[in-house]
Every structure is written in C-alpha cells, then in structure tokens.
C-alpha cells in the first residue's frame, strides 16, 4: 500500500488523530518525496513499533540516547513508503530481536510528534515534526536482545503498569496507552 493510501485508510479514534491525519495527508500530497526523506527539514515520516510479548502484558523498549527515556522502537522512512516494513526493520535493528511480526498490518496510531532541537553525531538538528505511523508488533519474550550503542543504551521488556515510571517523555504516555487499548481490542 502506498503512503497516501495507508494514511487515508487509517480510521481516527479521536479528534487528535483526525487532525493529525489531515495534516499528514496535506503534507504527503504536497511534498510526497520530501516527507519520506529528510529533505523536508520541518517534518518527515517516521514509523514506530509498539512491540508486545505473547502474553500481551509487556512492551519491548529501548533507552533512547537522544531523549534519555525508555521509548518504543522506530525511525525515519528514509524514502521507503512501506511504513510497516520500516517499523519492522527498526524493531529488529534497535533491539537485536529476529522474530517479530505485526499484530495487524494496519496503522494503529497516527500522531504528529514534536522533536526538540538536539545534537546527533556531532551535528545540531533543529526542532522539527515526526509524522508518526505506529504499528502493533509482537515478539517472543525469550529471544536474545541487544543494545545498539549508536541509538540506545538499553533494551528491556517493560510491564505496561511500569511505563509511567520508566518513560521520561510524558507526552508519549497517552500514545502508549492508546496503543495498549487498541491491542486489547484485537484479542
């Protein structure tokens, strides 16, 4: 499914998602290549995976170097319009897991996320927006995990009821709660 079709097929679950879907669609129609790459300095597409274990009571998170917080996996589309493939690739790259599958092939959350200015690889990156498509993924908890030092300083299964204590990004907690609720409805 191409980028525009994937975004259009998403059914918003709240006013925030409807507004964010409109903004993402507007940018995707106006600058389809620029938002899939990092040519657009103001906003670009990202895909994330909220990875749950088979018991569906924990999520696999990374301790993100830039945000200094436990976070879902994900990254920039970097030209790939298959956002599910991006989410799966990032999940594997950032955690070292091999066995991970989608609980659904559909986008489970659309969010426009603010990224504060920061230094990455010795270069300053200005504040910008991540146009985030999130997917629910599942992985067996017993497989090996590994840190990717250029991206994170930890990889860990975190119980859902510990997210508020572990995540330093308060603005991400409603996104994680929304994904947990949607995952529970898939059962």
From TrEMBL:
Residues 42-180 form the Nudix hydrolase domain. Belongs to the Nudix hydrolase family. PANTHER family: ADP-RIBOSE PYROPHOSPHATASE, DIHYDRONEOPTERIN TRIPHOSPHATE DIPHOSPHATASE. This is Hydrolase, NUDIX family. InterPro entries: NUDIX_hydrolase-like_dom_sf, NUDIX_hydrolase_dom. CDD domains: NUDIX_Hydrolase. The keyword Ribonucleoprotein does not apply. It comes from Anaerotruncus colihominis DSM 17241. GO terms for molecular function: hydrolase activity. Keywords: Hydrolase. Pfam families: NUDIX. PROSITE patterns: NUDIX.
